Amino acid sequence: MEKEILEHGFNFNRRRFLSTLSLGIGSVALGSLLMPDLFGGSGADEDGLPPGIPHFAPKAKRVIYLFQNGAPAQQELFDYKPKLREMTGKEIPPSVRGTQRLTGMTANQASFPLVGSFVDFKQYGASRTWISDLLPYTAKIVDDLCIVKSMYTEAINHDPALTFIQTGAQQGNRPSMGSWLSYGLGNENKNLPAFTVLLSRGIGNGQGVYSKLWSNGFLDSVHQGVQFSKGEDPVLYLRDGMNRSERRDMLDNLSELNELSYKQFGDPEITTRIKQYEMAYRMQTAVPEVMDLSKEPDSIVNMYGPDCLVPGTFAANCLLARKLSENGVRFVQLYHQGWDQHGNLPFEITNQAKDVDQASAALVTDLKQRGLLDETLVIWGGEFGRTSYTQGTLTKDNYGRDHHPRCFSIWMAGGGVKPGIVYGETDELGYNIIKDPVHVHDFQATVLNQLGLDHEKLIFKHLGRRYRLTDVSGKVIRDIIS
Fold first, then answer.
1. In whole angstroms, what separates CA 7 from the centre of its chain?
2. CA distance 151 to 352
3. CA pair distance 62, 329, nearest whole angstrom
4. Predicted confidence (pLDDT) at residue 234 exceeds the cutoff of 90
5. What predicted TM-score, i.e. pTM, was given to this entire model?
6. What is the CATH number of domain 52-230+311-480?
7. Cβ neighbours of residue 96 under 8 Å, at least 6 residues apart?
8. Among residues 136, 141, 138, which one has the least CA distance to residue 120?
9. Residue 93 carries which DSSP code?
10. Kindly report the CA angle at 88 between 86 and 92, in degrees rounded to 5?
11. Is the pLDDT assigned to residue 14 strictly greater than 90?
12. Alpha helices (H) in 128-232, listed in sequence order
């Protein structure tokens, strides 16, 4: 083929090579049978360690992140504040509100009346942890959870806050947490990507999620998240309709083109693209098997709830997350949209909680009974919190809450995190942190730590600067690590 190319005078460059290739990722990737060594990781960290080798002994092997997009109101779920309920209707004291920047949705309000939760709380488990009546299934596993009530962030609007907690920066084009783990640890299963993404939607206001949230940024594109969709074709373009012989002939020819182009230009993106084709071929067999929920026993279906058999639901995605994780996927990212309750909060948050409560608890229980919870870090939470004062008009049975970056709650389970504890504390009105604050970068540093990665050493040099997930700050929260 090289002779033919030279005889015809084709001027091959990287742009033309990739643009004229025009073959779906699924239709190009058989070469894994011929060149298995192409699947090594790329780059090395600050210590010169190749991907796949942690800095120290890890507590966890994998992460499942149940991201509640839109920011759940902590006052209705985890942060029990009886004093706030007592003061419903009264103006928030200036000493509590301080000089915090407000969003454009409430900055011009004439008053800021406090509003307590419409729902009751009870204590559960040996830990006697307060949990909302909206979360009866979560209440049953409270002794497996580490609830952090003192998270805080810097961004006050959804897009920068969501981008910040997922990528460590408020602007785009940075690697996501899953991409950093893929870069730092490599693949555990060569037949599946290291980083996968699943989307579901509740009935409430749905803030959008964008592919930049699972982008590889400046890392090699092999580290980007692979979105799995509902339906018969969970990964687009994997099916190509070619038989094995046709695919082999095509890849023999493409292999020669790849070699010519790489020899001429030395562009590492060419080999990165080849790695993606190789992964796509292997996924053609692995993905349908993992995505098939029809063989799950009745006991599992009953545990997650009937919605787990409905593609695209949060329950189905939780069950898929367990299957992906037990098959070696390093980072499974779920996004559940609909938590943006600026108004009509009592109705919407009730339905949102019902959407996620049973399946979230089932995931932890399922992993635990399979002996996988110790090596899997499960995370549940959103991008920031909600105000203790109401947005808009406060009525007897309805209200809303605006964005609040000063404090919010998340929980973690498994992966070497202490079970049955509550970390951090907010004031009696749930507006400011008064004990053990946890910044987003602290949270990210702790997650990396549990997987054996030092956040200060997991570095990628780009445009003359050393970048990391935690930028120039962050500390591991040692008090929550077992």
1. 51
2. 21
3. 7
4. no
5. 0.86
6. 3.40.720
7. 427, 429, 431, 432
8. 136
9. P
10. 105
11. no
12. 136-140, 158-167, 177-185
